[in-house]
Amino acid sequence: MRRFLCLFAVSALLGITLRAQAPTMVTAIRAGRLLDPEAGRILTNQIILIEGTRIRDVGPNVAIPAGAQVIDLSRMTVLPGLVEAHNHLALTYKPEPESNIYYYTYVQESTALRAIQAASNGMQMLNAGFTIVRDMGNNALYADSALRQAIEQGWIPGPTIINSGIIIGGMGGQFFPTPEMVKEHNIVYPEYLDADTPDEIVKAVRQNVLFGAKVIKICVDCKPYGYTADDIRLFIKEAAKVGMKVEGHVQTEAGARNAIDAGIWSIAHSTGLNDEMHKLMAQKGIWRAGTDTPMGLDGHPVSPQAYQRIVESLKNAYDNKVPLTFSTDADYYVAGKTRGEVVIDFLRTWKDAGIPNADILRAMTINGYKVSETEKTRGPIKAGFFADFIAVPGNPLDDVDALRNVQFVMKDGQVFKKDGVMTPASFFHGGPVNGWRIR
Ligand SMILES: [Zn+2]
C-alpha cells in the first residue's frame, strides 16, 4: 500500500494516469491486391498487421495473432493514402452570394465559422482517400492551425494537416482593397500578413511559427513590387531555423525565376512556369504544385484556351522530369460535390496531359509524402510507419479513375470508412486524448 501510494504520488507529479494499460489493439487486413506506387506494381494476397497507430508487418505470410480484428479487403486494391499538396480547407467561396470572389467570403465569414467548415472539409477529404493535406493559407486567423490541432489532439477525424498559417506578402497580399480599407484598419490582415522589409519578413515568419504553421507560404509576385531572390532567401533562412520549408505563390516568369534562383522548396500554380523554368526546377529539385484545374467544374469555368495551356504546361513539366505533386487549390463550392470529390476531379487534367497512371499515382503518394516531409514516418505501407491507407475496387494502375470510388480508409490505425460508408465514431472524443500540449 505504501509502495502504491508512493508510486501514485510520483505518477501524479509526472502527470501519468495510473490506469491498467489497455492492451494495444491489433488489426489484420487481408489485402487481395496491394499497390506499391514506388515500384508501380501490384502484390497479391498480402496481410497488413497493425498495432495501435502503426503498421507492424506486411507480407504474404504474416501470421495473424489470436484475438486480432480481421478486416477482409481480399476483393480490393489497398494502396497508401493520397496527398493533396495545395488546398485551403478553411476557405469555401461560392457562386452565391459572393460570385466566387473570396475577398467577399473573407469579409462575410468569421474565423470561427471557417474553422468549422475546415473540420467538415477535412472529413470530406479523408472520405475521398486523402490522408495528408497541405493547407497553404487563406484560412482567416489561423483556422488551419486550429484544424490541425483538433485532429492531432484527438477531437475529430481528419487528414494529417501540413499548414502554412497566414500567407506572407508585400503590402496588400492578393487583395486590391481601397485606400480607406487599408489606412484605417488594414483589412488585408488576417487573410494576408504584410512584410515589405527584411525586419518584417523575419517577424512575419516568426508570427506564423508561433501560431502553429508547419510550412511557410509567401506571395512571390502578387504585386508588381514582389519579392526579389534575396528577399526569398531571407524567408528560406528564417524558416530553416525551425526546420520549415517555403512555398511560393508564383504567377509570372520573373517571379518564378526569383523563386527558383533562391532555391525555394515548392512553387504553386503554373502560369509563371515555361519550358525554361521547368528545366531549372528539375535541375534544382523544386516541387511543382501546379494546381492544374480541369474544365467543367460547375461554377468554376476554365476556357478551352486556358485549359490547353494548363495541360501543355503539366505535360511539359512531366517531360522535363520536374518533381510533380497532385495539387488543386480547390477552395470553392461546386454544387452536388464534396470537397474531396472536387479535388479528385483534377485527375482529368493529369489524364489529358498523357501522364501514365503509375506516375499519377506516384505524384499522389510518394511525391506527396516527400513534399510534406512525412516520407520517413507516414505514407508508405511499411513496418513502423503510421497506418494510413485506403482501398478501392479495381486496379488504379489500369484505370486511375478507380480512385474515385474509395471504399475503405484507415487513419492512424483506426477505420474511418468501410464498405463505402464513413464510420468515424472511434475518432470523436470529449477531450484532447492525445494531449493538450500538441500545438
Ligand atoms: Zn491556393
Describe the structure.
With 439 residues, the chain is α/β, with parallel strands linked by helices. The chain has 2 domains: 126 residues, Urease, subunit C, domain 1 (Roll), CATH 2.30.40.10; 291 residues, Metal-dependent hydrolases (TIM Barrel). Helices cover 32% and strands 21% of the residues. The protein has an 8-stranded mixed β-sheet with strand order 3-2-1-4-14-15-16-17, with no helix packed on it. A 4-stranded parallel β-sheet has the order 10-11-12-13. It has a 3-stranded parallel β-sheet with strand order 5-6-7, sandwiched between helices. The N terminus is likely disordered. The chain binds zinc ion. Zinc ion (ZN) binds next to loops.
Helix/strand layout:
Blueprint (H helix, E strand, L loop, with lengths): L1 H13 L11 E11 L4 E11 L2 E6 L9 E12 L1 E6 L14 H7 L2 H17 L2 E6 L7 H11 L6 E4 L3 E3 L9 H5 L8 E3 L3 H13 L5 E4 L9 H12 L5 E4 L3 H10 L3 E3 L6 H10 L2 E3 L14 H16 L19 H6 L2 H6 L4 H8 L1 H7 L16 E4 L15 E4 L2 E5 L2 E2 L17
Helix pairs in contact: 3-4, 6-7, 7-8, 8-9
Bound molecules: zinc ion (ZN).
The site of zinc ion has 4 residues, from loops.
Compact overview of the structure:
This protein is α/β, with parallel strands linked by helices and 439 residues long.
CATH class group of the largest domain: Alpha Beta
In helices, the fraction of residues equals 25-40%
Give the bound compounds: zinc ion
- By secondary-structure content and strand pairing, the structural class works out as alpha/beta
Give the N-terminus to C-terminus distance in angstroms.
38 Å
Query: What is the second-level CATH architecture of the largest domain?
Result: Alpha-Beta Barrel
The shape is globular
Average pLDDT number: 95
The tally of domains stands at 2
How would you sum up the major sheet? 8 strands, mixed
Number of helices: 14
Report the β-strand fraction as a percent range: 15-25%
Q: Going across the biggest sheet, name each strand in turn.
A: 3-2-1-4-14-15-16-17
Write down the Rg: 22 Å
